[in-house]
UniProtKB/TrEMBL annotation:
Residues 26-192 form the Phosphoadenosine phosphosulphate reductase domain. InterPro entries: PAPS/APS_Rdtase (IPR004511), PAPS_reduct_dom (IPR002500), Rossmann-like_a/b/a_fold (IPR014729). Its cofactor is [4Fe-4S] cluster. This is Adenosine 5'-phosphosulfate reductase. The lineage of its organism: Bacteria, Bacillati, Chloroflexota, Chloroflexia, Chloroflexales. One of its GO terms (molecular function) is metal ion binding.
């Protein structure tokens, strides 16, 4: 299938198969949110057996790390890679995430991934963003051309569709999701979302920040 026939109803597995054919060194990045877990299952069904790369900032919820461990067991055909900036969590009172969240994301999240990608140099990245996650993602397409090609198979899937797929396949969704944490990052920068809010409204709430920098801005991948 070629991209000229793609539309909002194109099956994400067809997008992944297309990506695997064109970019065999394709690498997936994931934070193991609901979308990420669903993308891993779809990728498995489409034949993906490459790396799934996660950045451990030192501030993840235990539930997130447990979700990663479940996925490692469930998908032995994939190589799960955990990167770390090797910075210990800061003592209370000196936290960079309070005074300079952009700088904190830059050193703890973006830098380890950029360094890893510079070494591996994959031609394309597979990731789980979707249009309905936030206003900043409303125009997301299946393919973005940038420093690297970025493939977004879930771009057009709605929240209800993603949840239904996860439940139908008994996927190990982070239990915090069902407690209202619709997008889960580091615990100091994540709260549950309120009715009517964007899925990502609980990220950096009140900090004037909407993205970690992996996907928009000067540091984007
Ligand atoms: S999400 Fe918060 S704690 Fe995590 S790296 Fe960014 S600023 Fe630091």
């Amino acid at each position: 299938m070629t991209t000229q026939y793609w539309d909002a109803n194109t099956d994400p597995r067809d997008v992944i198969r297309w990506a695997l054919a064109g970019y065999p060194d394709l690498l997936m990045t994931s934070a193991f949110n609901l979308n990420g877990v669903v993308l891993i299952e779809l990728a498995a069904q489409a034949g993906f057996a490459g790396e799934v790369v996660f950045v451990d900032t030192g501030y993840h919820f235990p539930e997130t790390l447990a979700t990663r461990d479940h996925l490692i067991t469930r998908y032995p055909q994939m190589q799960f890679v955990t990167l770390s900036a090797d910075l210990p969590p800061e003592p209370w009172g000196e936290e960079q995430f309070r005074s300079d969240p952009d700088g904190c994301c830059r050193v703890r999240k973006v830098a380890p991934l950029r360094e890893y990608l510079a070494r591996k140099n994959p031609s394309a990245l597979l990731n789980a963003r979707s249009r309905d996650q936030a206003a900043t993602r409303r125009d997301l397409g299946f393919v973005e051309i940038g420093e690297r090609v970025r493939i977004n198979p879930l771009a057009y899937w709605r929240r209800e569709q993603i949840e239904a797929f996860a439940q139908a396949h008994h996927l190990p969704v982070n239990p915090l999701y069902w407690a209202g944490f619709k997008s889960i990052g580091c615990w100091p920068c994540t709260r549950a979302v309120r009715p009517g809010e964007d899925v990502r409204a609980g990220r950096w709430s009140g900090k004037g920040k909407i993205e970690c920098g992996l996907w928009i801005g000067e540091q984007s991948l």
